[in-house]
Design goal:
This protein is an alpha+beta fold. It is about 25% helix and about 30% strand. It contains three helices and nine strands. The protein has helices at about 1-20, 20-35, 90-105; strands at about 45, 50-55, 65-70, 90, 110-115, 120, 125-130, 135-140, 155-160. Strands 1, 2, 3, 4, 5, 6, 7, 8 and 9 form a nine-stranded antiparallel beta sheet that branches. The chain is globular, with a radius of gyration of 19 Å. The model is unreliable at about 15-20 and about 170-175 (pLDDT under 50).
Length: about 180
């Protein structure tokens, strides 16, 4: 009888541990890394004066997308986040550091393939890298005046974890996030 009771307790305990949603786990890790959200409805966390970290989940509370995006994408609901003339894109070092932090939130997996051609639009070169568990879309600042000494700057990047992520994606330049 004691063995049966012990098994039932262990089974209940394991169910409680497993029942924590991916959203709960991701939000907890995100809070540890980035602090409390600055917009709980949209799951936005402050990165710096110009950028936010955004989380999207599907209806089953599974991670669908992690993104680092300019705050001005959300200026419709946050008027104080309008794009300013002194906007600073991410440096390549900051991009790599943030990508490493996002890896702690949810792993993108091993690199499978890199796109050979970037799509250019709205002064942004869009590039996609396909990983085992995600698709990394990066928007690089593009300039016709750039040369080999021009530092690489990043406007935004997103990790897409959706099941359909490897379908051909039509990339559209984004000026403001629909919020």
């Amino acid at each position: 009888m004691k063995k049966i009771l012990l098994c039932l307790i262990l089974l209940l305990f394991s169910f409680l541990i497993v029942s924590a949603s991916e959203k709960d786990k991701v939000m907890q890790v995100s809070r540890q890394i980035f602090g409390e959200p600055i917009d709980t409805r949209r799951n936005l966390f402050n990165i710096n004066r110009f950028y936010v970290y955004r989380l999207d989940f599907d209806k089953q509370n599974r991670m669908s997308e992690l993104a680092i995006e300019p705050k001005y994408y959300f200026s419709t609901s946050h008027p104080d986040w309008e794009e300013t003339e002194d906007f600073k894109p991410l440096t390549f070092t900051a991009y790599k550091n943030l990508l490493g932090q996002l890896e702690l939130v949810k792993t993108k997996g091993n690199l499978i393939s890199k796109d050979q051609i970037d799509i250019v639009g709205n002064a942004t070169a869009f590039h996609q890298d396909h990983y085992e568990h995600s698709l990394l879309e990066t928007g690089f600042v593009f300039s016709l005046d750039a040369d080999e000494n021009t530092p690489t700057e990043i406007k935004y990047f997103r990790l897409n974890f959706r099941k359909d992520r490897n379908k051909k994606i039509s990339v559209k330049p984004m000026t403001k996030k629909n919020d």
